[in-house]
Every structure is written in structure tokens, then in C-alpha cells.
Amino acid sequence: MTAIKLSARPTRSINLLSLVGWLYLGGMYLFLMLPILTLVIFSFENSRFPTLPWTGWTLSWYGDLFRDGRLIQSLGYSLWISPAAAAAATVLGFCAAYVLNRFQFLGKKLLSIVLIIPIIIPPLILGVAFLGLLSGLQLQGKLISIFLTHVVILIPTAIALIGLRLSQMPKDLEEAAWNLGATEWQALWRVVLPWSIPGIAGAWLLAFTFSFDEFVIAWFVSGFQQTLPVAIYTFLGANLTPALNAIGTLIFLISICLLVGVELLLIPILLGQRRSS
After folding, report:
1. Burial class of residue 73, CB neighbours in 10 A (0-12, 13-18, 19+)
2. pLDDT tens digits, residue range 170-187?
3. DSSP letter string, 133-186
4. pTM above the 0.85 mark?
5. CB within 8 A of 85, min separation 6: which ones?
6. Are 192 and 166 in contact (CB under 8 A)?
7. How confident is the model at residue 1 (pLDDT cuts 50, 70, 90)?
8. Cα–Cα distance between 200 and 258 in angstroms, integer?
9. I need a labelling partner for 71 at 20 to 30 A (CA). Which of 6, 22, 107, 207 fits?
10. Is the Cβ–Cβ distance between 219 and 181 less than 8 Å?
């Protein structure tokens, strides 16, 4: 009987630790999600200022949001710049990651360091530097300036994610394609690119998120054509209305839909690769 009790104590300790771990994770998750849930709930409140007790439901703030041309226009700019900058950074990041993973050449380590510099330098310094450069090129205050600066700062992220995926690829696959008569371009298109799709999709998603949320550099280089974070900051300086809760809710829903879409895209690819391996 004593032996049985001694053997049961570790199990109880493990169960207690597991319970504490789950409670800790649940508390952290609630701590992170509570502000978002508060934002969503108060976007439907009838009162102009968030108050308790609840005063009633309304959709009027969403109507004010769509009647405010400034925020809608800025949202349109963000939805144009972010996916375009993410796509350009992903393409350039794939090219750089492929070269760094497949070839040996003089200055490779130096090139690797240079390519990650934008992610090391503080955004404030980058913003000032980009402002001076774009002013000299007569591009300051235009949408193309935000696009170009976002591409530059997003390339290191794309290189890191796609390079990680390429490092997991057996080199025998590409060499087998060459032995079967494929050219280097055909092997790249039919072997390397399909293998890299999970990394490419992840790089684009992360780059899109960073670009959509980026404020400091966009604030420096933008003019009257502002992305959504800059427009919200300007809007907060003028007046504070529940329309900001409404636009925050819409951004949250867009992010959730995007994440679900990427998951639905990646799951069949990953399952197919697992079966083939």
C-alpha cells in the first residue's frame, strides 16, 4: 500500500503542475485578448464615451466611420500598400535567400549582414534617413515613398523565413531534377518553388502584418496621403469618437479572416508534403 501511495504522488504533482500551467496560459491569453474584446464590445455602445453600466446597442458609429472619407481613404491606401509591399519583399527575399543558401561566393557573409541591417536599425533613425533620401529624389509625401520604404524594411523578414524553409530542403531533390534533364530555371520553378511555398506564404503574411501596422517610418515619409495608423494618430489629435473602436474592430476582423485564409491554404500543402515524404 505504501508503494502505491508513493507512486501516486508524482502523478498528482504532475497534474497540479499541468493545471497551474493551463491556468497561467489562460490568464495570459485573457490578458492579451481582453483589450480587443473591450474594443469590439464598446464599438456597439450607444454612448459616445465607454461607460458602465451599458446604455444600449447601436451601429451608428460604423455609419459615421463609412461617412468619414479620411479614414476610409487611409484604409484603402493601407490595403493597397501592405499587400503590394509584402509581395515585392517576398519575391526579393526569395531571390536573396535562394542565392545565400545555394551558392558560395566572395563576400557572402558581408552580403548577409547588409541584408539584415534594416531590421537592426531603430525605425526612428530609418525614418529620418528615408525622409532625407526621398526628399532628394522628389518622392517625399507620395504613396510610392511608403511602398518603397516598407519593401526595404520587410526584406529581412522574408529572407529569414524563406531561408529557413530552403535550409530544410534536401539538395538531392534539385540535383535529381538536373540529372533528369531539367535546366536550372525548370528545377527552380518545379522543385524549389513548390517546396518553398509554406515559407513564402508565411513570409508574405508576416510582411503584410508588419506593413499594415507600421507607423513610425510611414509618419516620416507620408504627406497628405496617409496609411491607416498615421491617419488614426492624426484623427486622435483632432477628436476622440467611438468610430475608432469601429475601425479597430474592422481591422481585427480583417486580420482574423486573413489568418484563417492562410491556414486553409497551408494545411493541404503541408499534408501533401508529409504524405510524399
Report:
1. middle
2. 777 777 777 777 777 878
3. HHHHTT-TTSHHHHHHHHHHHHHHHHHHHHHHHHHTS-HHHHHHHHHTT--HHH
4. no
5. 147, 150, 151, 154, 207, 211
6. yes
7. very low
8. 15
9. 207
10. no
